[in-house]
Amino acid sequence: MNVLDAAPIKAYGYELGFDLIRITGAEAFPETERVIKERIAAGLMEGLPWFTSERAEVSCHPDALLPEARSIIALAMCYLSEEPEEPQDDQPRGRISRYAWGADYHEVIKPKLKQFADWLREYARREGGPELEARLFVDTGRMVDRAVAQRAGIGWYGKNTTILTRGWGSWVFLAEIVTNLPLPADEPLQANCGKCERCLYACPTGALPAPYVLDNRRCISYLTIELRGSIPRELRPLMGNLIFGCDICQEVCPVNHVVEKRLGLRQIGPTGMQAEDRRTEAEVTRSGQRPQIWLRRRDEFRPRPQVGGAPELIPLLALSEEEFRTRFRHTPIWRAKRRGLLRNVCVALGNLGDQRAIPALIHALSDTEALVRGHAAWALGCLGGEEARQALTARLEQEGDPEVRQEILQALAMMGSRNEEEDESNKKRR
After folding, report:
1. Which domain holds residue 350?
2. Among 351, 287, 344, 335, residue whose Cα is nearest residue 317
3. What is the dihedral of CA 52, 204, 260, 278, to 10 degrees?
4. Are residues 292 and 406 in the same domain?
5. b (16+ CB within 10 A) / e for 201-226
6. What is the pLDDT of residue 424?
7. pLDDT, tens digit, 9 for 90 and up, residues 35-79
8. Which terminus in the chain has less CB density within 10 A, N or C?
9. Do both 80 and 170 map to the same domain?
10. What is the H or E stretch that residue 5 is in?
11. 403 with 296, same domain?
12. pLDDT tens digits, residue range 82-95?
C-alpha cells in the first residue's frame, strides 16, 4: 500500500488551528506500559480509579483501540493568552490554572478533530488510499497522549512529567487521531531537560519526588480537581490560594520562560489566521520547511470574566448550585463541581488568614454539602478568634456527619493550642 503524502495533512491541521502536527506509527508503547504499571503498583496513581493496569494494556496498544491502526497523527494546540487585568483591590483572591481561564478545551478541540477526520476521508479517497478508519482522542480516551507526542516529535518529557515543545513550552493541549492510513513517521526530538530540576524543588507539596515521577496523591491539580473527598489535612497549608489546578512546576520551567519572553517578538494574529496567512502556512509546510511559529489570539482560551485568573474568594462561598452551573458551565472548572470548588475556596481562605472571610465561612458551616462544611470548619480553625470559636461550638451541637464533627473538633483544638501558645508567649514577654 502506497504511503500517503503527509504535507497536505499537516497543512490542513495548521489551518484548523493546531500549532504542532507530527506523525508516528501505530506500534505499541511497551516502555510506557511498564512505567504506568510500576506507578500503579507503587500507589502513585491512587485516587484515579479508572487508571488501572488493564487500562494501560489497552491504551499502550493502538491496535487495541483500532485493529487496523497504521499511523497516529499527534496534535498540539497552545493555550497561552494574555494575562487578565490585575485586580486593584485588597480582597482575598484565589488562583486558577491558566488552562482553565477560558472555554473547556474538549469542546474546542473535539469538533476540530471531527472536521479533520472528515477531510482525511476525502483526502484518502482522492489519493487512492484506503477507506478511512479513525479514532479521535483529547486526553479523556484510552490513549497515552504524552507517549504519542514524544515519539512523534511533538516534544520531549519534562522532569515535571509534562510534554515540553519547541516554541510553545508545556502550554499545550494534546490530541491524537489513530488511523488506518499509511503515513510517513516523524522522528522524536533530540532534546531533554539536561541538569535542570527547578520544577522538582518548586512543588510545594512534594508531588515530584524524582525526575519524571509524579505522586498523584500530592499533586495540587489532583487535590483541587479530581479528588472527590476531603483534602488531607497535612497538605492543606501547602496549597496556598490555589483553588483549581496548579501551574507552579510550569511557571518555574526555563523552557517556558523562553516561550513567554518570545511572545512579544512573535507575530500575533487575530483569532485564528487570516486566509492569506493560512495559505502561506500551507505553502511553507508543503515546501518541507519548518512552519513559522504563530501566537493566535484564540477567543476560546482568553480569560473569561466569570473565571479569570484570580477570582475573589468570599463571594464564591455564596454560590448556589444553579449559580455555579450558570457561571462555570462550558469551562474546565465544571469538572470540580460546586462542592469541590467551594471546598478549595475554604482551604484558600484558611491559608490567606484574612479575618474578613469569617462571616462567609460561618455561613458555609451550614452548607448542604458535608464536604464544604468540613473544610469551612478547618478554615475557621486557621483564622481563629472568638466569633469563629462560638460558631464552631454551636455547629458541633447540631452537626450529624461524623467527618464534619471531627473537622470541627480538630479546628477547636487547633484554636485552643494556638491560644495556649500565645498565652505562653505573652508570659515570657512580661
Report:
1. 313-422
2. 344
3. 20
4. no
5. eebebebbeeeebbbbbbbbbbbbbe
6. 59
7. 999 999 999 888 888 888 888 889 999 999 999 999 999 999 998
8. C
9. yes
10. none
11. no
12. 777 777 788 999 99
Using the predicted structure, report yes or no on whether residue 279 has a pLDDT greater than 60. Answer: no
Measured CA to CA in angstroms, residue 36 lies from 159, 209, 217 at distances of 16, 16, 15
Q: In the numeric block, which cell numbers belong to residue 225?
A: 480537581
Neighbours of 430 (CB within 10 A): 4
Q: Which of 241, 268, 301 is the last residue of a domain?
A: 301
Q: Report which residue type is found at 358.
A: I
Catalytic residues: 139
Distance CA 327, CA 320 (A): 10
Identify the pLDDT of residue 421: 64
Reading the block at residue 114, the C-alpha cell is: 471531527
What's 353's domain CATH number? 1.25.10.10
Indicate if 297 and 320 belong to the same structural domain: no
Asked whether residue 362 is domain-assigned, the answer is yes
**Is 65 found in the same domain as 163?**
yes
Alpha-helical segments (H) within 47-168: 53-59, 62-65, 105-126, 145-152
Residues 327 and 262 in one domain: no
CB of 54 within 8 A of CB of 141? no
243-248 mean pLDDT: 96
Are the C-beta atoms of 303 and 101 separated by less than 8 Å? yes
Model confidence pLDDT, tens digit, residues 148-198? 999 999 999 999 999 999 989 999 999 999 999 999 999 999 999 999 999
As a whole number of angstroms, the distance between CA 60 and CA 28 comes to 6
Q: Are residues 331 and 400 in the same domain?
A: yes
Burial 376-386 (b: 16+ CB within 10 A, else e): bbbbbbbbbee
Structural domain contains residue 243: no
**Same-domain status, 295 and 332:** no
Residue 399 grid cell: 452537626
Residue 90 has which C-alpha cell? Answer: 485588597
Domain end: 271, 301, 331, which one? 301
**pLDDT of the residue at 426:** 57
Number of domains in the chain: 2
